[in-house]
Write a structure and sequence with these properties.
The longest helix has 10 residues. This protein has a three-stranded antiparallel beta sheet, with helices on one face. A two-stranded antiparallel sheet has the order 2-3. It has one domain. The chain has one helix and five strands; from the N terminus they run E-E-E-H-E-E. The chain is about 10% helix and about 20% strand. The protein is globular, with a radius of gyration of 12 Å. By secondary structure, it is α+β, with helices and mostly antiparallel strands. Strand 2 and strand 3 form a beta hairpin.
Amino acid sequence: MRVLVRHCSEPQYMMADGSWTSLIDKAHDFQHVAVANDHAVACGLKDVEILLKFEDEKYDTALKLVGSGLSGDNDGFGTGQPPLFPT
């Protein structure tokens, strides 16, 4: 399973450098819902959702953002800074 950030109004996915692509294979895999949520909230992204992308697309699931982030400080690591992408 991949954890992606997707625009709600157009088929665009966030890449590792913060830009957007229509190619789902180039989308950044956040690996954890909390990391994807906290990053989107910390960056002030609007009109986005978290997509749980499975090999069999019939299981794909879109999740709404939790407005203040799941970790309380928006980064999941206690730094108060936007999260860094995993390397």
